[in-house]
Batch of 4 targets.
Target 1
Amino acid sequence: MGAMRLVEPNLHRVDVHSRQMLFHIPTSGLFELDALSRDLLALFDREGSVDETALQTLELRHSKGDIRDTVEELRQLEVIEAPGQAVQINPDPVKIKRFPLTTVVLNVNTGCNLSCTYCYKEDLTTPSKGQKMALNTALSSVEMLLKESPGQPRYNVVFFGGEPLSNMALIRDVVGYCEERFATLDADVDFTLTTNATLLTEKLVDWLDEHRVGITVSMDGPKAMHDKNRITVGGQGTYDVVKRKVEMLLARYRSRPVGCRVTLTRGITDVEAIFDHLYHELGFTEVGFGPVTAGDIAAYNLTDGELKEVFAGMQRLGERYIDSAIAGRSLGFGNMHQLLTDMHEGNKKLLPCGAGVGLLAVDHQGGINLCQRFTGSDMPLFGDVDHGIDKPRLAEFVEARLDRSGTGCETCRIRNLCSGGCYHESYAKVGDATQPTYHYCDLMRDWVDFGIAAYSRILHDNPSFFATHVSPRRSA
Amino acid sequence: MKHLKSLNNKAHLLDAAEGTDEREEVVAMQTIVGCTATADPGWEIDAFGGLASLCQPMESDLYGCADACWWPAQVPDTMNSYPEWGSGVDKVDQDWRRIDGIVEDDR
């Protein structure tokens, strides 16, 4: 055998206290290295290429047979390569022919009664100018979903806006239609919406509860932080009314857990204080954070320094998640829960999200967009609900993102977890949704390393946590 | 594998496939369509994660219906009303025979 080399893009090592983990990038498998495999990889680090003579230096501490076995294990994983061995870094390119859609997002009204300063919705307008989706368009969207992707066991219909509750008449009609329509198909249908909560009433909550419409509330934290950006069209802060509505919602609504989504913008970076308020004081089941880094209005984007602060705060909150997990409790920190679910399963993502493959969004006129973030944007539509999906163009887009060659993702160690990031962030930042988002790669890699260490620590101290709180309750 | 200790589920699958021709299948396995790891652009659609690639067996979803997750079904709600419902019967695939029902009058 000639000299062997490390296949750097296929392995990543993370030290966790005195132990060392090997993250196997092509599969997202996570291993703990023993003394020999550590020594062997360290030998490659020192020597670059390793031949039989170099391997013999390990025989001072390890047996020849064990060394041979370890080399073989690492070769099988394509973490080291021998001359002439073909190793694969990324999957071969594929042609997309099928779109296994399960989700349609309906932009039921472009109008919103709030005018949050940072809102990314390109078609957003005030309630009086709001363009409401017609019932026909909504029903055609549902029929398009069924026509383009028949035979799925479960479908999701998502109501988005604007503020979706400002077009409740449509939501009621669509829910009624779907409940009957999907029952005849022996398929389940699931409804969700994201709301600013201001329009909720007891009667409305009871109706949403009865139809098990999943609810996410957009809320940004304690009063001072929330009121900084989440204001009415007239400019008033909305915290007091939102808090009152949320307390009513959480007290009445029983069918599903209610989560909260926090938008982090310039000047709002205190992840822990926000979490404590929303989770411990108001009682949301889960709180997740979305940092704004590529909004249209640059003044609201987190600065580089703030983004670092946000990730540092997420790690501090993550430490609390770890402490809880070791004590056998699950803390409702959404981003962390998702990261650990991916870690535990060893999930791989060749695309960053389901947009364009499992999910499409319909604008108020019936135009098909990649996701709700693109409705009203200048990005050309991918067909419309009456004529169906423009599959060649959609395939072309998805294939462009699947092909990592020549991008910064090609050999990145988190390429199968981050997969290049949000389409809309790229679109907003550089005008091209087929490009990866490059502006916080280092922070994302740190966050994933944090996840690897967190997973290893929890598994070591309380191995049953994942079987109890993550596997049975996983979300992806 | 002797010198690499499998930690997560994928690593265990890889280990089990060692020396067989199934390894390539494991490499391709669990390639999901889901949200990217953090800044989570799709998160706002459903607070509790994915909209695609949902898990199949009821066992893997049961508590997803009951507590900090996203799935709607007629099971007791462990967040507010019956926090103890799942206690001691956490591993649904093994414990399902012991999971009890609730009669409203018992409250």
Target 2
Amino acid sequence: MGPAPPDSTPLLPRPFRVMRVRRELRDVWTLELEASDGAGPVRFRPGQFTMVYVFGIGEVPISICGDPAKPDVLVHTVRAVGTVTQAVCAARKDDILGVRGPYGEGWPVEAALGRDVVIMAGGLGLAPLRSLVRAVVARRGAFGRVVLLIGARTPAGLLFSRELAHWRARFDLEVRATVDAGDPGWNGEVGVITALLPRATFDPATTTAFICGPEVMMRFAAADLVDCGVPPELVFLSLERNMKCAVGVCGHCQFGPAFVCKDGPVFSYQRIETSLRIREV
Amino acid sequence: METIDDLLSRHPFFKGLKPEYLVLIAGCGRNVHFDADAYLLREGGTADRFFAIRGGSVAVETYVPSRGPVTLQTVGEGEILGWSWLFPPYVCQFDARARAEVRATSFDGACLRSKCDADPALGYELMKRLARLVSSRLEAARRQLLDVYGPGPTR
């Protein structure tokens, strides 16, 4: 009997082999994984996540940041901040990790068809948006103007520098990066990411926006986008919560009336604006 | 050839101003150009002007011993640089350095203040716009202080 389809055993991790590990920043690594159980690749939509299990240590939700057109390679970019993520980042070629998923509602790319697109990434938030950028670039003609705004603490905190250079070189993408604090070698913008909005070229009324980053950054960014005329139902944010089961059963990631793992992690600002302002949520 | 009031009418800061106000304001302005690394303003210098940036990018800097010049903020096309000309003692608080070639309209602060004194309606309109600018810069500085990209949850 062959391996069970992943969705029939939602809590059972599948074994994935680490094929490549690349250090992105001082404490951030990108891992490329391939299924080693013969059950096929993880077909995902931009913005979805998987649960990555380091055997004997624990499991964490991690956004998929690879190319949706190349599902054979499961790509995760991870910051080593706790016991489990440190163990994930310590994995080396040929190690085996457990993977469940993909889970959740991803970025609604179809809501941006024919419209201008503003993508705002703060810090590690570029990782969950990378799949979206690739999906948009792959169908570039289906969208209006495409603006990618990136914020980081320092120049050393900017992710995917090679890919950024590639995107910047395109004439059909407007890419702007800013840091909260520059250094002598930095020739880009200095200031908060929201300060980039008035400098970017897009028509707010016909724009769909996608934001990922620290929650407070997303709150400010979404409010500024709506203030300048982007419809709140077309501003999308990816939330991070303490996801455990990933299938909407355990309740660890409850966010007001929603479960982030099942109903999110991507929500429209219109849906969650009130909850975002409730401190207890 | 475009006049300064033509250029101002397209600048976001002046957008929507009555044409007669644009002419009055333009009377205090002149178009200027700075090469990369040239200083538009110097910390401690007389704050006798401000700039409507029309192209390029300016770093607002201060000098920190042992660190050298530190960029606090960058100001670019469509934005305004400088408000120390509004209040005594009219002294610049920071350096402003062109990061690349800059095109701007420079306004004589004393000229504009006297026109605002003579026409309170113009003064009120201009001060509302400047207050919004100062408020948005203050809000941005507060957001910067939050250090939102600092360490997050540990898992």
Target 3
Amino acid sequence: MKKSEIKKVMVYDQGLAGQPHPSFWQNMAKLQRLLQGEQVEFVRLCCHCENPQQAVLSIEQVIKAESPDLLVIAATPLGEEVAPALGVRLKTGVAAHCADIVINGEDRIAYMVPAFGGKVIGEIFIPGSRPAIATVKPGVFSYDKKDAADYREILCDCISEDSCGLRIVETEEIAQQQSAIEKAELIFCGGFGIGSKESWQKLEALAKKTGGGAGCTRPVVDMDWGPDEYYMIGTSGKTVRPKVYIGFGISGAAHHLCGIKDADIIISINNDKNAEVFAASDYKAVLDANQVIDRLAEKL
Amino acid sequence: MNFNFTEEQEMLRTAFAEFVKEDVAPNAAKWDEDDYTPTELMPKMGELGILGIFVPEEYGGVGLGHTERVMALEEIARYSAGLAMMVFTHQLGMAAILDFGTEDQKKNYLPEMCAGTKICGLAVTEPGGGSDVAGQKTTAELADGQWIVNGRKCFITNSHIADTTVITCKTGEDERGRASFSAIAIDKGTEGFAPGRHENKLGLKGSVTGELIMNNVKVPEGNLIGEVGKGTPIAMKEIGEVGRASMTAIAVGILRGCLEDSVKFANERIVYGKPIAKLQAIQFHVAENRVAYEAARLMLYRAAAVKDAGKPATIEFGMAKYFATDKAADAARRTIELMGGYGVVNEYAAGRYLRDAMACISSGGTSEIQKIIIAGDTLKKF
Amino acid sequence: MNILVCIKPVPDPEKYGQLKIDEKTKRLVREGIPAVINPADKNALEEGIKLRDLKGGRVFVLAMAPEFSRDKLIEALAMGADEAYLVSDKAFGGADTYATSYVLAAAIKKISQGIDPQRDLAFDLVLAGNESADGATAHVPAQTAEWLGLPHLCKVSRLEAGDESENAFRAWKRVEAGKAVFQVNGPCVIAVSTEINKPRLINAMGIIKAKKKPLTIWSNEDLRLDEKTIGLAGSPTQPGELITPDLRRASIDLGSDAEAAADEIVKIMKKAGV
């Protein structure tokens, strides 16, 4: 799709009518910057159904009626389910977890998509089908209030959940002990090398004490040391952009590095002198993660 | 001649390697340091089919052969030679029961041993020597339907952890007045039967080696394995084939450790601005480690194939055992030298490889014993 | 309960550090990187085997992959699946998630026909790993479900089957606001995340039994799908160039004393204003 072919851009927002999801601002601002100077209509499609099937059935009709050229969806747990379903229903292509959306030398829209755990980034084109759908992890695009411009808002009428084969029967809100890591200016991140539940608790305590956030990598979730996927940083978790990121016992798999690459300062502590994370860090220390965690707890 | 493993064997190796990666590799250094015997892994190895891989299905095994058995040992020994030592000694006792036991004995003992819920051992060596089978002093006398066993075994692996140990003992004399020996299974907890000294070994730590003391131990007559007076062939066959095959597999595992660690170190260690792998002196070490590993491995799997074909393989295993253990010690020393200062730091495994390889040379018949056996055969054949 | 598990052979994710892009062809060089069953798919298989052992029935595995990936299906059979299907054809190559899920859905329908031609779908549950380690789009489960007209739920971290009469599943999933429990009517497609269970190790007995279990290989001659709907031709997304992101930074050493390093870190934090 050429840049000039884009006449209508729609951003699907799962936030409430008057309370857009933070990712909405990020994605809308990014597209407006990208398509600056073009004659493009920007639309916010607001639908706050939390049931993915209900959301798909509800917004599908609106999308068909509006026929946008580009539809951007935040890759939240809901968006990640809605986007591929819409792809099949609307017979169109979906670019997953875009690290960037760019206009290439030929004026074509290219979706930059990570693969092989972030080791490579591939260009994806969606030449023929409409709308082209792109999902973007919250936090990938930065947002500054002054970026926001005009857009038309469509409030979607949600269809009844009764017509769905999928129903939410229980929800349990999780009170956040700490500020959400995607907004945190200081992040303490634990990897497999922290070794225990106790160490994760120490990281959380550090975060609480300093007003920062505690994050982790996949092994910490899988080992059941405390955090769930919500705390995970990387291509399949969150993208963060803190002023200072301190990683403990992190090996440096590419998918994690992708999630922290926008940090101003990266500090890594790992007792494996060959840890790949060191090359991608501003500061490194070949030390036992827990020793440094304990020292920091005394000093902060 | 086909040098390829079957698809099934490749899958087995991958499955063993997964287990080793998860449960052995991360703990091997610690087991060595603490001389800790991870018996808790036995049920898991039983479930995976490692322990009874060569035992027919009807006795709780997998029904494969010794090729697959030594494959598992090689994978385990790559990270922990000590654990492989415990596993194979368990299998050594099982093999004696399988090859010479009665149907009842096999049904009674083997399923739990395959499952790893019971541990087995085989005890031959005595203070007077190991390979001198005829010099054994342990005796058993039959009285009122019971064997009364007296004596002392030493350098016995699994001495302190085995639930059942097959021991060899003197049970009489043949028509020419020479001592004749029998094999008897003794269960843990039998009165008068107890482990003695626990040896503090140079290498193969993690496996328990020690004494077994038998003081008027009363064992049911039915615990005799094989026929009266046929204990020597049992010991010779199992130690000569199962035992030496296993020692070779352990040495091949150590050789692979040396090879992989030396390559990794040579690529990562930067001196004068480039990896030391660029230096020819280092390349010579790496090449020698490779050749030693490949040659020992070929001898191991050829000998295993001979055994699995049902042919006598004592000489093949004798040659493989002598060669592989000797080369493992050479390779470990070379790896230490290649690493410079790091080679003598215990954070690196090279020192452990050397200790384990040296211990392998003395176990299951020394290199000299192997050479005597090999020479005996060679002088007849060529 | 008949369960179908979709699996994908992928280059071993633990070796992605060795991946390189060929300077000339701009293609990914994956030589020397062995294939493994996609990690999350092993969790899906484990979940399927556990459910079968609880509720009875059979576990079928399905993969769309080159024919040399046969051994990965045997591995799945060795883990405990009952039957395996491999759909393999050059014509399927270059497919994006849209065209891949189309082929998988067609294969699922064909397998179902073979089990019970009277039922719309002979499976009560289709399981898959949430995402593959290589492409990681997390699209295929939902898209396969859409082609089959089934409800779907991704990123499930716990799963329970309801009573026989219910024909429904309870699935736990992390959502924006917290945790939610969904009721999903069967048949449905559930994509599981790796935290749902710990896949069992393969045992020797399983490998021997696997050889005797049925493994069927189908090409497009069996599925008879229009060539315009499969492979690269049937894919609405098209790949362009690959790049390797350069994430290198200064890597200044803070020394090997924990106390001093911690002091340095505090200084850096102060300077950055956090």
Target 4
Amino acid sequence: MLVLVVATALGFDFTNGFHDTGNAMATSIATGALKPRIAVALSAAMNLLGAFLSVAVALTVTNAVVKTFDSNATSAHAALTMSGDKLLSIVLAGLIGGIVWNLLTWLLGLPSSSSHALFGGLMGAAIAAIGWHGVNWVGDGSKLDGVVGKVLLPAVASPVVAAIVAGLGTWLIYRITRGVADRFTQSGFRWGQIGTASLVSLAHGTNDAQKTMGVITLALIATGHWDHLDSIPFWVKLVCAGAIALGTYLGGWRIIRTLGKGLVEIESPQGVAAEASSAAVILASSHMGFALSTTHVATGSILGTGLGRPGAQVRWGVAGRMVVGWLLTLPAAGIVGAVMWGIGNLFGLTGGSIVQVVILVAVAGYLFARSRRQPVGAHNVNDEWEADVTPRAVPTGAAA
Amino acid sequence: MRDAFGHDVRLALGAIWKVLLVSVILGAGMPALFALSIRSLASGRLVIGRVAAGVLLLIVVYAVVSGLLFIIASGQGKDISFSHVVPQISTAS
């Protein structure tokens, strides 16, 4: 059971990596500042580094949506608010919900938030297991917490903030460099792109790998394999960093394509503005304890550069599909999480978790097989964006 | 419940303003300085252009390094203060 939970958590970490490569690297790939393969390798290295740099314990990550953990407790085992088995079954079902939604949105080329997928899955599993009160809906008023404070409000605000910043940055850049010869702007801004994109990747590694580390450590505590509240076993750190880096390296080309080519046509200066905006928004908000999703910020930034550059065109159809994807993330991952918990509950603890993982592997295999029909990889990630190449399925206005 | 919801919204609005302010300064300001430095490089005035470009680039590099330090420090669970030009890292309170 524990082995399955750890393996599934690493699977989630992996999908998290390849789902989010595009957040940092889509613009660099689209403008040609970096070759696709080099871009994902750089991003993977930065994610790996970031994951290792972070030693702060993210044990409370699940607390944002499910009351699993009492951080006032002094001993690790006493801190759990429910029995270890129950906690494990909720975490496993929640992780599967997150992975399935991540894979589905990847197939559709939709950049959706991996953290939301995880939170949604956990919420669904918790509702199925404990009931509506099992979910931590709102904070206690002293700080931003709960589903509303940590998930919903940031999701609404962060793309808007990022778009404003990136739009302003783009406008300023084009204003300032008007009339400057192309040979200066092109090479200069390409370096700027590489720097800013690396910064975003590093921030991503420190934030997102930490979430999986927290989940795995929580599972270890639940089964009595670990009893420290303020540290993470080294092997957990190692495998989490490896999983997210490997995922990043394989690259979610479909999502990179949507972000880099689908939303707006990007030039180097826009890429700098977008990534600088993403980096600034991510850092500023994590400094203020405002939890947000890298995906929402990156998407908002890229949209903003389309608005800020005179004459640039934003494909609102693509943007609309993304927003629909975001709205669906929480409930959809939640439903999968709840169903998975139900199935697991049917077969008992050990049998149930095996059945769940088998289902997960089958679904993942099916989605992967579907993806082979229209492969998107390093070779064609920058092809011209045409309506008929875009993966369809979310019936909300075709891409323009 | 409704009260707690209101609290969350108020807290979020307070945080959003700060995030927006800081992000505009760093996220739009730094690229603008970067653009200025490219402009001065391309201005044709060799010495003045290069010195200006260098100074501007230094400011941008300082901001980027501060950002890096911030990521590392918060990853280690430390606080970081930029109130003295050189960033100070301290144990989180």
